[in-house]
Specification:
20 strands; ATP-binding (chains A, B); 417 residues; EC 2.7.2.4 (chains A, B); transferase (chains A, B); 32% helix; Carbamate kinase; alpha/beta; homodimer; repeat (chains A, B); aspartate kinase activity (chains A, B); 8-stranded mixed beta sheet; Alpha-Beta Plaits
Chain lengths: 417, 417
């Protein structure tokens, strides 16, 4: 008998019919003899509808009240899913985040889970119930309702799995696993049977939307076995765990591309000690995430830098630079859009020299020039012009021997919450 | 500086525009220097929409899960109302039932409030906030979410007013007070300035939908000053309190009529001791509320009874009678519909003989025969044929000197939750 956490996203429970299908799927698991805790997101467009309602009344609502509002979405889901299970003749009990013992930091809109007291969950399981927990929400020590922000339901599922020491945490979504690259771009993308936390983390950060990075971090930290699988098929999914099995000859596990990237260039900066610290300290102080940083050579005591930020932060990054110009003199600051960051990820590359070189070769092979490069132990990223990205990803996929004929991809927009 | 509870029903906050109007009204109160606790129902049709969603999935959902589902309606209201107040530049905090310290019995769908711990409400008031509490809901000692059933938000408001020792509990609704009778029936119905708890209780039970009887009971028990007034006008409402001021010569305060009545007749019952106890004990055991009971004379050792029940309970009441026929033999049981119960209510009738006689006279004056009569200290009810009820109510209204030219009635469907 296993203890299993099953997480279903909003599109999986978007209609009464889908809700019933999910209920049956949960019951099947229970009938196998497993103890089941289910985590659910808000149905379909519920969250967007609530946000719209709020904006009708206040275009800048307090985040405390937004949390109060939005958490009703998941509360509706858990109640209805429990009703669907009862209708099919099985016992279920739904719980809000606070009822499930999920304690968070004293922050609204993007709280982190600080503790889970699973006594009530265990008591309910012991009574033979299927336990259904509202994702995305928790309560502070002071009894305030909070939400976990983007990817929050994934995080709830993983944190709950860690707290109850579940054998596995299954994330049901509308794709049937983690792919070597986006199957909408590369037809012969292969579904991975296993992937390590670190690899998944890189892929998640690099724009593979199936799992939220925070949930993966949590899984890594608590060593939770994560499975990503389809809520529409019975196909085996992808297992995310500490030491993923290495397939013969596979050095690169996956290829990701991220269009949400703008390059800021700072030209003619006085080459003095502490300049970099001042520039990037100021960006960090303003909450701007800087990704790749490149410094070109120094000429005549002046240096050129460039760095990437998300598109949304572009103007703010420039404003921050303008604000420190008196302190850090430079000639000019510019930005460039229409870029894409292409990355190869794989734990195998640590011990395989020449992996980066092969990447540069493949990219130049399709006539594209590389604007920036960044490397880590298990990742190489190149910033290139966005236009030929599909061709580049396909070339890399082939170059690293990832192509396969087995294309079991189930399409549809991906489910992030 | 007064401490005031303001309760707004679902239709008062049914749209963003109405929500804003209510927000302004609350702020006006606060600007007078009062400390304000607001209780709100679910917006407009929210509750019906949620019930429909549930029924799509399960036509007989567990009441625990219905409570989980329906309480989201009020949670949405309080969050949005708080946002509306913030938008107008004032501080507000919304609270669910459990956050507001409302503890109920361990019963779903119609729990009674067993305790309120108002510490958090006081702390929030002390911080200068307008406090907004979700009506209709609470939590059991064991942390289960419950609802209070029909009229629940009125009850929340009154119970909260009792717990925080508020100076007054104002119930805002879509009529501007309690009327001597339904102003849609009798054009010259008069708005009452004051009414006693007992009178209000009788009127509420008799179908005057403005206040729920349970809320009135609660107000009487804790001696809460209740005011019923319009959320759309600034007219003074009706004050409900222990000893209402007697207007000169007014013996009867109000006239109510209730069409939700069926008469069951049991004919040829063996006249033995304990027969009545058996018949009505069996009805009570089956959860059937019996209202008026009349026993006509005994002839040849056989008695005839008749009693009234609500229309919905009619068939079940007959089934219960059929079930005990072996134990309590009778010749025949029949029922009659198309009836109405007309009642006059007034604390003044205790000391005024002839009040009932005047009622019978007025009814027979319009050519209507009386089928059943029931009296209490402050009430006389007659069951008559439903057809001429408007004429009867008008005649009674005139007979007791209640007519007035001042018809300030604001129409619209009444708000019960």
């Amino acid at each position: 008998m296993s203890l299993i956490v099953m997480k279903f996203g909003g599109s999986s429970v978007g209609t009464a019919e889908r809700m019933n299908r999910v209920a049956q799927r949960i019951i099947d698991k229970k009938l196998q003899g497993d103890r089941v805790v289910v985590v659910v997101s808000a149905m379909g467009d519920t969250t967007d509808d609530l946000i719209e309602k709020a904006n009708e009344i206040n275009d800048n609502p307090p985040s405390r009240e937004m949390d109060m509002l939005l958490t009703t979405g998941e509360q509706i889901s858990v109640a209805l899913l429990s009703m669907a299970i009862h209708k099919l003749g099985h016992e279920a009990r739904s719980y809000t985040g606070w009822q499930a013992g999920i304690v968070t930091e004293e922050v609204h809109a993007k709280a982190r889970i600080s503790d889970i007291s699973p006594d009530r969950i265990f008591a309910s399981l012991d009574q033979g119930n299927i336990v259904i927990v509202a994702g995305f929400q928790g309560m502070t020590e002071g009894g305030e309702i909070t939400t976990l922000g983007r990817g929050g339901s994934d995080t709830t599922a993983v944190a709950m799995a860690a707290a109850i020491k579940a054998d596995v945490c299954e994330i049901y979504t509308d794709v049937d696993g983690i792919y070597s690259t986006d199957p909408r771009v590369v037809k012969c993308a292969r579904k991975l049977n296993e992937i390590s936390y670190d690899e998944m983390l890189e892929l998640a950060h690099l724009g593979a939307a199936v799992l939220h990075p925070r949930a993966v971090e949590y899984a890594k930290h608590y060593n939770v076995n994560l499975v990503v699988r389809s809520s529409f098929t019975n196909n085996e999914g992808t297992l995310v765990r500490e030491a993923a099995e290495m397939e013969q000859g596979v050095v690169v596990r996956g290829i990701a591309s991220d269009k949400n990237v703008a390059r800021i260039s700072v030209l003619g900066v006085e080459d003095q000690p502490g300049v970099l610290a001042k520039i990037f300290g100021a960006q960090a102080d303003n909450g701007i995430d800087v990704d790749i940083i490149v410094q070109s050579g120094v000429q005549g005591g002046k240096a050129d830098f460039s760095f990437t930020v998300s598109l949304a932060d572009r103007q703010r990054a420039l404003d921050v630079l303008a604000g420190i110009k008196a302190e850090v003199p430079y000639r000019e600051a510019t930005y460039e859009e229409g870029l894409v960051k292409v990355s190869i990820v794989g734990a195998g590359m640590v011990s395989n020299p020449g992996v980066a070189a092969k990447m540069f070769e493949a990219i130049s092979g399709v006539g594209v020039s590389i604007k920036m490069v960044s490397t880590s132990e298990i990742k190489v990223s190149c910033v290139i012009s966005a236009e030929p990205v599909q061709e580049v990803v396909r070339a890399l996929h082939t170059a690293y021997g990832l192509d396969t004929a087995d294309t079991a991809y189930v399409g549809g927009p991906q489910d992030r919450r």
